[in-house]
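cache lookup: miss for this entity combination. No prior model stored, computing from scratch. Input as submitted by user K.M.:
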Amino acid sequence: MEEVKQQVISLPRLGEPAPAFETATTHGVLKLEDFKGSWLVLFSHPADFTPVCTTEFIAFAEIYPELQKRGVELLGLSVDSTSSHIAWVRNVEEKTGVKIPFPIIADLNKEVSMAYGMIHPGQSKTETVRCVFIIDPNQIIRTILYYPLTTGRNMDEILRIIDALQTTDEHKVATPANWRPGDMVVVPPPSTQEMAEERVKQKEYECIDWYLCKKKL
Amino acid sequence: MACISPDGKPTESGTKMLRALKSRLGSAEEIAKDAGLPLFRVRSGLRELTQAGLANQKGDKYEITDKGAELIG
């Protein structure tokens, strides 16, 4: 009987090192390690000169100053060529006045797309879906978002996640549903009965019960 | 290449990096600050400049070569 070999591709997971790469971009050859020390939003789009992607690129360019304030770099990716990327960003600038300030990976051989699990054959065998990888300054993957081809991404949510990650890292807290900067944060739940009894007596916390207490930063 | 044009001349960002290197031996972080460029661009650019013989790496610092200095005048 002929042996059927199935290729199993391991996808990146949260808390694991981001897969290394060295690749051609619109800003020259870049390595993942070039971004060490900065937060990085690596995102893929299905193709250049397509409508939803164009709206997303304009939106990413619009939040770029906000990302810079937070120490975040942006890096786009699709399986188009560098020439196609250059023609597209020039066209976007010419037609809309928006300059695309960040590099775009030309992943013609799909090396980076495959390493990051950006191609979902159920959606398209040739194009990358709309992925967002938020990578921290130590190059650990901290957030992964996948959007279908037909749904443009929400930039407010990307900024909100970065604010939440940076806040939780700095203050060792968690953030509740729909949290925004300035809102109360969740303190880690007590791990012993004694700590639980102490927690509900502490005046600086606003507690529903011992396991759900919030505080202001 | 982002720092060197096909005709062998440094691009605008390559020139900024070489000018920063001309004034001092510097790390990628220092060159990024002096040249006003993102650190990732400088790390990538310094690789190119080194491969092209326009800069030399000494530990974690970089210096301009005679060829690099000649190109920016």
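stored under new cache key. The mean pLDDT of chain A is 94.
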